[in-house]
Amino acid sequence: LSPSPSPPPFSSGSARLASPHLRPQISKARSPRDPLAPAAMSASSTPVDASGEPIPTSSVLMAASKHIAVRCRPENVAFLNCKKKDPNPDKCLEKGRQVTRCVLSLLKELHQKCPKEMDAYAGCMYYFTNEFDFCRKEQQAFEEACPISE
């Protein structure tokens, strides 16, 4: 008896890979030749508006998420409590504005206090599609330059 043949890597019409060793591996290495690699990004990778204030893109918000969680907690809790009491969106607009003001004010403060580290971290988050694991070095530098405080 001969052994049965191994199944093909793709099952009938499915695009899923059958074996984990055949899945593409994501490399954390940064190529010095890659012009978009975070290490080679320009110093002002955080998008800013005409007045120089940071634009709250997803990568900027993700990079500042720990700071936002601590500094804007009272505003967020008040907003969530309002939404819990009354699901009518009109009733909580002012609480939502307070959350937005807090976040925008915090982003401006962080960008003024440690622009280089914030830009590097937000740029890394942008490059790696908001995957924290790939940006730990930039995260550490950012949190050392701008410690999380209330």
Question: Would you write up a description of this structure?
Answer:
The N and C termini lie far apart (72 Å). The longest helix is centred in the C-terminal third of the chain and has 21 residues, at 93-113. Mean pLDDT is 79; it is low at 9-29, 31-36 and 38-44. Helix 3 packs antiparallel against helix 4, helix 4 (93-113) packs across helix 5 and helix 5 runs antiparallel to helix 6. The radius of gyration is 22 Å and the shape is elongated. The protein is mostly helical. It is 47% helix and 0% strand. 20% of the residues are buried. The chain contains six helices and no strands. Keywords: Disulfide bond, Electron transport, Mitochondrion, Repeat, Respiratory chain, Transport. Residues 1-54 are annotated as: Disordered.
Please give the structural blueprint.
Blueprint: H1 58-63, H2 65-71, H3 73-85, H4 93-113, H5 115-127, H6 136-145
Distance between the termini: 72 Å
Helix fraction, binned, reads: 40-55%
Tally the beta strands: 0
Uncertain stretches of 5 or more adjacent residues = 9-29, 31-36, 38-44
Radius of gyration: 22 Å
The averaged pLDDT comes out at 79
- Biggest sheet: strands, sense, closure? none
Q: Count the helices. How many?
A: 6
The quaternary state of the protein chains shown equals: single chain
Class computed from helices, strands and strand pairing: mainly alpha
Quick one: overall form? elongated
Strand residue content: under 5%
Q: Give the topology string: H per helix, E per strand.
A: HHHHHH
Family: Belongs to the complex I NDUFA8 subunit family.
Biased composition (Pro residues): 1-10
Protein name: CHCH domain-containing protein
Region (Disordered): 1-54
